[in-house]
Design brief:
The complex is a heterodimer of chains A (about 110) and B (about 120). Chain A is mostly beta strands and about 110 residues long. Chain A is built from no helices and nine strands. The chains are: A mainly beta (about 110), B mainly beta (about 120).
């Protein structure tokens, strides 16, 4: 089973700054099967990025991803107020479809 | 528009059973694998189960294997999760999420239904 570890647990930034969120896998994973989701309080998760770098429909260009092997990151440029949320990485290459424990991005 | 609407949650005693439903609309249901994902209060996401587009493949997280059963009725555009022998640690919001067959990522989620296991 692939275990995903996200860091930091909480990231406090101001609007306009850049956020970099990390996702580390316990073993090498194909970047083709790495996704990121955003979840706001009281809402369902929303797909942001899949295949490690492809933005889902309607996701702004300020969201981007990079990485390979065991280390991946989500970068959000020029933070907007609506970007403050919890972010999860996920490996969807097969069962179990493990999620990281999440990074909370909150307003400084 | 695409919708996934979960129902069936509620308060149930430990050891009892509950069946959740997820009704789909706005897309071709039988083109998609469907997952259940749960979230304990204040915690992260935990994958629970998958059923393939035609129901021929099912798989479960170890934490629910032998207790939960996933099924679907494509004629009714509905997914089910039969949960038996419920435990306190099963408490949480249960989401259904779709994944286009051959793509695998979860591209749309329902709003969830809350299950509380408590005496």
């Amino acid at each position: 089973e692939i275990v995903l570890t996200q860091s930091p647990g909480t990231l406090s930034l101001s609007p306009g700054e850049r956020a970099t969120l990390s996702c580390r896998a316990s073993q090498s994973v194909s970047s083709s099967y790495l996704a990121w989701y955003q979840q706001k309080p009281g809402q369902a998760p929303r797909l942001l990025i899949y295949g490690s770098s492809t933005r889902a429909t309607g996701i702004p260009e300020r969201f981007s991803c990079s990485g390979s092997g065991t280390d991946f990151s989500l970068t959000i440029n020029r933070l907007e107020p609506e970007d403050f949320a919890v972010y999860y990485c996920q490996h969807y290459g097969g069962s179990p479809y493990s999620f990281g424990q999440g990074t909370k991005l909150d307003i400084k | 528009q695409v919708q996934l609407v979960e129902s069936g949650g509620g308060v149930v005693q430990p050891g009892r059973s509950l069946r959740l439903s997820c009704v789909a609309s706005g897309f071709t249901f039988n083109n998609y694998d469907i997952h259940w994902v749960r979230q304990a209060p204040g915690k992260g996401l935990e994958w629970v189960a998958i059923i393939s587009y035609d129901g021929s493949y099912k798989n479960y997280a170890d934490s629910v294997k032998g207790r939960f059963t996933i099924s679907r009725d494509n004629s009714k555009n509905t997914l089910y999760l039969q949960m038996n022998s419920l435990r306190g640690e099963d408490t949480g919001v249960f989401y259904c999420a779709r994944a286009l067959t051959s793509k695998y990522y979860f591209d749309f989620w329902g709003q969830g239904t809350l299950v509380t296991v408590s005496s």
